[in-house]
């Protein structure tokens, strides 16, 4: 596919190939000059050593970061890596660098096939500092899981359903986050295949799980299923990137988990009925030509809903949805400058370490804004975007750097004190004004009620401090 620019025809495939070469050079430079950060590698190798030593009880497969919590596919993949690298980090980095390029090539194929992005926006897929780090400086299993997931999506676009489901099941066997794609994938199957085709593809996927888990299912089945497919894990509040502003006692509570699960299911049901099947109904078999343009959109949106409702996102989880961000931004009714600002804002949040209240708020607001575009009108989206970005920048860039203020400077103390005073007094004044007069102080002549609501929300919201 080629586009004419300034009299020249620019091929998306050719531009993507050039980006692959440049990114391969960048990967080589990162491996050569950026220090490796040890996080989970030693734990992975310890768990693999136990497996290779004959241990089949999942409760006894442990590393220095805790017990093994991934399905059996993880053990096979990292056993292969240990065989190829001898357990050494540097050759493993080279292997993960190759994996990064393979994954990027698959992503480019998906974008070229879907024809959503302009050619120059392909470069956005190569610009994430965090994703480069996840692949070649951290060596997380998320890298293999997401590469297989993207390969599965590419096969779906080519109507290779049986092979797509087999590879998808392999991705689930490495890390269960891939299950976030299961609802939209199942919906697409119902629309593209007859009932016989659906059952045969699901049987193939189930068979993969049985074969990979057979050594454990035949010996310690309860231990394997309870550890490898544990949906009730409670993550550590400190590492949360998305809900750091939620108090820890609420964050770890069962009620919070259930509320997010209910929200997740409600959003999936709403999108399935009114966005993904809005014209033909939920269970109407369609010709492939009728649903092909929306395959990547449905898959990426379904996964993004799961990301928004996830109780905790750790830094490596960014790889779960980074590659879908340009797609989601370009199918949303944003002007291009705003798309780039949102993309940069999300990347910024994922590169703040450790995460704090303000980075989490900014990340959640960006995610909510992007989700809003799938259900709201263009005018509502434009107004919401302006206010959310403006106030997010104020909170993140201003309050986020209070820790560097000098408390010995009277001017700094005066400005800080005045800011805190206004932060509490202005919302209180708005509240009392409304109760006495009977209407909001923030009244506008705008035709859109949304504008008045947004002004009221921002000016009447009390400040939140990370104590």
From TrEMBL:
Transmembrane segments: 14-36, 92-112, 133-157, 163-190, 197-218, 258-276, 296-313, 320-346, 385-404, 410-430
UniProt entry keywords in alphabetical sequence: Endoplasmic reticulum, Glycosyltransferase, Membrane, Transferase, Transmembrane, Transmembrane helix
Its membrane topology: Multi-pass membrane protein
Superkingdom as given in the UniProt entry: Eukaryota
Subcellular location: Endoplasmic reticulum membrane
Keyword Membrane: yes
Main subcellular location of this protein, as a coarse class: endoplasmic reticulum
GO molecular function, one term: dol-P-Man:Man(5)GlcNAc(2)-PP-Dol alpha-1,3-mannosyltransferase activity
Pathway: Protein modification; protein glycosylation
Catalytic activity: an alpha-D-Man-(1->2)-alpha-D-Man-(1->2)-alpha-D-Man-(1->3)-[alpha-D-Man-(1->6)]-beta-D-Man-(1->4)-beta-D-GlcNAc-(1->4)-alpha-D-GlcNAc-diphospho-di-trans,poly-cis-dolichol + a di-trans,poly-cis-dolichyl beta-D-mannosyl phosphate = an alpha-D-Man-(1->2)-alpha-D-Man-(1->2)-alpha-D-Man-(1->3)-[alpha-D-Man-(1->3)-alpha-D-Man-(1->6)]-beta-D-Man-(1->4)-beta-D-GlcNAc-(1->4)-alpha-D-GlcNAc-diphospho-di-trans,poly-cis-dolichol + a di-trans,poly-cis-dolichyl phosphate + H(+)
EC number in record: 2.4.1.258
The protein's enzyme class: transferase
GO CC annotation: endoplasmic reticulum membrane
One Pfam short name: ALG3
Protein's name in the database: dolichyl-P-Man:Man5GlcNAc2-PP-dolichol alpha-1,3-mannosyltransferase
Organism listed in the record: Zingiber officinale (Ginger)
Lineage: Eukaryota, Viridiplantae, Streptophyta, Embryophyta, Tracheophyta
């Amino acid at each position: 596919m080629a586009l004419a620019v300034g009299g020249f025809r620019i091929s998306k495939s050719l531009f993507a190939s050039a980006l692959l070469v440049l990114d391969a050079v960048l990967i080589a430079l990162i491996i050569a000059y950026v220090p490796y950060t040890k996080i989970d590698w030693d734990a992975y190798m310890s768990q693999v050593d136990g497996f290779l030593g004959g241990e089949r009880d999942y409760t006894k497969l442990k590393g220095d970061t805790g017990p093994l919590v991934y399905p059996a596919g993880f053990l096979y993949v990292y056993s292969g890596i240990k065989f190829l690298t001898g357990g050494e980090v540097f050759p493993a980095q080279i292997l993960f660098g190759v994996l990064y390029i393979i994954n990027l090539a698959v992503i480019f194929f998906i974008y070229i096939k879907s024809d959503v992005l302009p050619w120059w926006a392909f470069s956005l897929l190569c610009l994430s500092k965090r994703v480069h780090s996840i692949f070649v400086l951290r060596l997380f299993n998320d890298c293999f899981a997401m590469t297989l997931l993207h390969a599965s999506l590419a096969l779906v676009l080519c109507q290779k359903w049986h092979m797509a489901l087999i590879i998808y099941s392999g991705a689930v066997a490495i890390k269960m986050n891939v299950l976030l794609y299961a609802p939209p994938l199942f919906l697409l199957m119902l629309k593209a295949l007859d009932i016989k085709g659906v059952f045969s593809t699901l049987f193939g996927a189930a068979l993969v799980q049985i074969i990979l888990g057979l050594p454990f299912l035949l010996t310690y089945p309860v231990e394997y299923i309870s550890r490898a497919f544990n949906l009730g894990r409670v993550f550590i509040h400190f590492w949360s990137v998305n809900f750091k502003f939620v108090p820890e006692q609420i964050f770890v509570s069962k009620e919070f988990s259930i509320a997010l699960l209910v929200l997740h299911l409600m959003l999936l049901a709403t999108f399935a009925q009114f966005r993904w099947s809005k014209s033909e109904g939920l269970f109407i078999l369609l010709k492939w030509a009728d649903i092909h343009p929306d395959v990547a959109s449905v898959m990426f949106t379904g996964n993004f809903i799961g990301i928004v409702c996830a109780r905790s996102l750790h830094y490596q989880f960014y790889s779960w949805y980074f590659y879908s961000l340009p797609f989601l931004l370009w199918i949303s009714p944003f002007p291009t400058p705003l798309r780039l600002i949102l993309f940069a804002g999300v990347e910024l949040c994922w590169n703040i370490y450790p995460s704090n209240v303000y980075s989490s708020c900014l990340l959640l607001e960006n995610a909510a804004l992007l989700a809003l575009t799938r259900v709201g009108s263009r005018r509502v989206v434009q107004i919401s975007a302006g206010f959310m970005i403006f106030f997010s920048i104020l909170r993140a860039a201003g309050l986020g750097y209070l820790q560097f203020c000098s408390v010995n400077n009277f001017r700094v103390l005066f400005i800080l004190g005045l800011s805190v005073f206004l932060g509490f007094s202005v919302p209180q004044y708005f509240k009392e004004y409304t109760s006495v007069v009977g209407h909001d102080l923030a009244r506008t002549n705008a035709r859109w009620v949304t504008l008045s609501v947004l002004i009221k929300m921002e000016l009447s919201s009390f400040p939140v401090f990370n104590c």
